[in-house]
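Technical annex, item 7. During the second reporting period the consortium partners agreed on a shared format for inverse folding records so that results from different sites could be compared directly. Each record opens with the tokenized structure and is followed by the designed sequence. A conforming record, contributed by the partner at site C, is shown below for reference.
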């Protein structure tokens, strides 16, 4: 997976990932993707723990809590993935891996959200190091929806996460 960290965007410049996109380019669509964490060993442990505590009848709730959230942003015919990983906040050019990532939400911003606003959000988030319990991929997606998408129905972090985890569980059962 090749990662490209953006610098401050200039409307007079260009970028190999999203060339032709300026600060005022409108965000046209956001898609949220959820996938299992990359560690197969961790996933096996989580599944065994859930089976133990639910006497083998678990509904995968605990398992689905151990997932990764990322967002695909569309500006015209240009697409970028925005996510927080243990390596930091990143824009990546990679395509969604349909074998391991599940689309849990697609939407169009209500307000006029621009590439420049997203770059400001990105730059602020660059200063926050990854923390497993308080600054992980789910917190990043939640903050994006609250600050950039201005989604008030997702007021509570737990409700936001459970909504995406429930769709993931349903689509992967």
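Designed sequence (site C submission):
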């Amino acid at each position: 997976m090749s990662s490209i960290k953006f610098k401050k965007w200039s409307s007079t410049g260009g970028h190999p990932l999203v060339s032709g996109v300026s600060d005022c380019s409108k965000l046209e669509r956001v898609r949220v993707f959820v996938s299992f964490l990359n560690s197969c060993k961790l996933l096996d442990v989580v599944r065994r723990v859930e089976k133990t505590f639910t006497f083998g009848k678990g509904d995968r709730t605990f398992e689905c809590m151990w997932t990764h959230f990322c967002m695909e942003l569309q500006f015209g015919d240009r697409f970028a993935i925005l996510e927080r990983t243990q390596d930091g906040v990143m824009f990546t050019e990679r395509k969604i891996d349909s074998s391991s990532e599940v689309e849990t939400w697609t939407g169009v911003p209500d307000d006029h959200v621009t590439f420049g606003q997203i770059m400001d959000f990105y730059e602020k988030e660059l200063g926050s190091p990854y923390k497993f319990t308080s600054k992980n991929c789910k917190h990043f997606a939640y903050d994006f929806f609250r600050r950039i998408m201005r989604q008030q129905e997702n007021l509570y972090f737990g409700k936001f996460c459970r909504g995406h985890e429930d769709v993931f569980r349903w689509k992967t059962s």
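The radius of gyration is 17 Å. The longest strand covers residues 67-75. All partners now use this format for quarterly exchanges.
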